[in-house]
Amino acid sequence: MTQIASRAQLRMSYLRWALVTVPLILLLGTLSGIVSGSANDNPWFAALAKPGFMPPGWAFPVAWTFLYICLGLALALILHARGARGRPLALALFVAQLVLNLAWSPLFFAAHKVSLAFWTIVAMWLLAAACAFLFARIRRAAGLLMVPYLAWLLFAGALNHAIDRLNPGAELAAPGSGTDIQL
Question: Is the residue at 60 inside a domain?
Answer without folding.
Answer: yes
